[in-house]
Records
---
Amino acid sequence: MVGFNELRKAAKKLPIPSGAPYRVAILGDSATQYFATAIEGYAKLSKLPLQVLDTDYNAIDTELIDEHSATRLWKPDAILLWLSTPKLYQAYEETAADARAEFATQTMNRIETLWMLIEKCGVKTIIQPNFPESFDAMWGNYSSKVNASFVYQMRALQYLLSKAMSTRNNVYPIDLQSIAMRFGEKDFFDAALYYNAKMAIALNALPTVAKAVVDVIAALKGTVKKCIVLDLDNTLWGGVIGDDGLAGIELGEFGRGMAFSAFQRWLLQMKERGIILTVCSKNNENTAKEPFEKHEDMVLRLDDISLFVANWEDKASNIKMIRETLSIGMDSMVFLDDNPFERNLVRQMIPEICVPELPEDPALYVSFLVNENLFETATYAKENTNRTKQYQAEMERIRTMTTFTSIDEYLESLEMKGTAKPFEPIRFARIAELSQRSNQFNLRTIRYSEADIEAMANDSQYITLYFMLKDRFGDHGLVSVVILKKMSEASNTVFVDTWFMSCRVLKRGMEEFIMNSVVNAAKEKGYGKIIGEYIPTPKNEMVRAIYSKMGFQTINDNQYMLETKTFVPFHHFISEVES
Amino acid sequence: MTPEKILARLSEIACEVFDEDDLVFTMETTAQDVEDWDSLTHLSFVNEIENVYGIKMTMGEIQGAKNVGDFVETILKHIG
């Protein structure tokens, strides 16, 4: 981790990285200058275009209520609302002794009022640090069962905050409590610094806090990891399966096996939360698969692995093949291998991929990866958990495809069923998630939060559509989203504000199915023209010509137009169903 | 550790913190003599000193350090 002084220099000297800047105002009840500086510096070093507004000391209410305040005039994309533990403690002490059992509830009410004020200012996103605990030993150990104690109330508050955040789609946590826990209170909180300067976090802890904030904002802006590529020997188990055999590898109670089992359980949780697990091993395929099939202490099974690649090719080539099959960006992949040689090779051949320097001792694999915090996210949708099945089905499709002589024959054999529907509440989370994750097939790459999605669904200026696809091998789930916006009040033209699609369903006629539905929906609402736009990014080259392919006329460089009345629906092999 | 050695090391740290190339401290140098030395960067300077010498200055020492000589004295006291 870089030091605070380096962040201070970066904040001062480096320009804001290129790209549309995300603007965050910091509102705190303690002195936030260095907190803001650290975030700004860390963002610059991470090449994240971020502008930070630091506001006055302890002026949260005025910043939100006064319409001429620095915050309100600046119109931030997000507000970071930081209530510090020492200030909470002060408020707790100022609470009448017989009212202290209600402190957490009262504080939570205050926080929700502040959230409401933030929303009223038109700021869409709230970044909310939680509360590092502090122990005042007022009743000794007994404190933790005294409901009027600060410890008891802080723990209650932590829970109330999590609960309140879980029901809101515009609040994103910064888990300061877990950062403070990893530092230990004496290194996280510098009492002299607090009493001298009202700064509630030690300068040496600020870089780690800044990383957390930058990680969260990067995830909000769509930078997330989606896939782990795993080595096997000495990564998932101890020893070498080809030499040591099934009985000789370390797993479970045997040798260092417990550490490997714990690592596997952590990976399994990752898979359950939607991260794709793949294997890339230098081995014979049968040998490599044997532990997954036969070893009783293996936690991961073949079912959990979306793609299993074991051969004697170099790993960089295999990883490229995995990336192509999954149709995801190289920068969303993490490669875990105990062997420094393999790590360096992959790093050199594929600079975009993330290759953590796994520690030598497997006992430290999990805690090391926890500290790296590679798997930040800004959404939580349950559909994710089916992804492994989806990728396994994809392998089946690829296998089947080779048995057909024509692509049409293959597509017909898939028995595809498509659905097109306006946005519905149960889909808001998933739609927002895809809007944040889709990079390649994404015409304008605008990221939307769940709250944005909900607002558009309820606005008659918009036509919203989401698309599902399934076939005889499995269900792809929600694969594409289109948002059309009326150009102006009197106009009969609609503008394609957003069109993104999962790359897993390319070349199946889905684009054609979508375009037919889009034109239909526009016609139904009486629109005569559809305008489409392509905004180039480093990742969406693949859709540069999509509107031309879809029969649009070119207006200028990246803008296209289609007359709905002359549109001839495309032929495809997807039958439309209700759900 | 001699006061002179500490003084030289403090000059190096100060160049980093106060963003100057060739700052040379004497025992009498004060915040007024250094452009970027204000109440905020003072804290950053203290933090770097604490990290370099593995010490923790007291609140009084931080507030009471009026010139570089005071810092040298404090460091000598802590590292014994």
---
Amino acid sequence: MKFIDEYQDSKLAKGLAGRIAGRSTKPVRLMEFCGGHTHAILRYGIRQLVPKTVEMRSGPGCPVCVTATADLDKSIALAHLPEVIITTFGDMMRVPGSYSSLQQAKAEGADIRIVYSTTDAVEIAKANPEKSVIFIGIGFETTAPTIAASIIKAQQEKIENFQVLSLNKLTPPVMKALLGLGEVKLDGIICPGHVSVIIGSYPYKFIPQNYGVACVISGFEPLDILLCIDKLVEQFENGQPRVEIAYLRGVKPEGNRKALQLMEEVFETGEANWRGIGIVPQSGLKIKRKYECFDAEKAFSGLLRFARNDKPVREPKECRCGDVIRGAATPLECKLFRRVCTPESPVGPCMVSSEGACAAYYQFCG
Amino acid sequence: MCLAIPVKVVSIEGNEAEAEIAGVKRRVSIVLTPEVKLGDYVLLHTGYAIGVVDEAEAEETLKLLEEIVSLSEVH
Ligand code: SF4
């Protein structure tokens, strides 16, 4: 496919790897923020291609993985309410909550439908005016504008039975939280390509400025990622960290203005609960008051409290997803990996999601 | 989740476009990319075009890559 195949050339990849090896004189630790990058890095064996001086860690950029158990429980509770249809991206179905999963709720009779797009969810709402159709809104800045667009569409078309449970999260604030923790010392970040299509490169500026960490935005093909690593190593070796775009065919410094405008129209920032990290201020998107009739949190707050029965949140025992998400451990350090936890019977979300680090390690490592 | 693939826009009607993916046509919302033109490639994410692929930059990057590699072969 055009704009994909050209960036997979193995001769060029080897050449780039050689250039990185020529540059890299001292150990450098990079984190790929995005689960899509983790997947590509393992799939194309990029860790084996780069020199030993380059250490790579996976980060929190898998929306399914970072969804807190408490928020999963809330989604499952919503699914059990009468006259409700839940619509969700498929990866959410099998993620275990404290006591159940959406998949289990469906087996127990809840009406849960997998959708590919928010537009499908709006169509389901149109076709079922007597039911409340709730979309489980997960994702980063890549997805948030599409959810904003669906809420605006629902308002314009007066589709009043469409609601969103907004669990959407923002990238720069969680990068700040991670760097602030200082648990894993990083020299460079492979910044997410498609988040950056929307937000551009400016929002990362504080990272080199305040933390001295290099930031390069990367596409998802192997040559994109190698080019990104080359630039990160160059910045690190020169001691001049800054924000660069290595995905110029997709990302403009100012981002996608129209998408940002739609997000701004519908959402305001608030705190969000991240698995493995906890509450991070200003890292979540809440639906603004003027659109509150589309906010599942508001519309069902009373019922939700009743349905959940205040059962305590339980995390999957011995699952190290939290550490994996912070880059503090690799999946191989989890005792359950492959022995107990597999894609067929996942213990934690990092094994469920197609972008989860554990799923990627399972598929491509050993 | 943040997956987006480049697809070619083959028709446009209002806020919607038709894009071709490996010979199959698919409806794509272009509310986030009103600037899109016929024949453009867009990055398709969950049914929405989230950005238009900059073809000049795409070629520029490829040229740069080839340059880098040919230089490193000389050494
Ligand atoms: S291997 Fe399974 S149990 Fe271990 S951290 Fe990953 S998802 Fe959790």
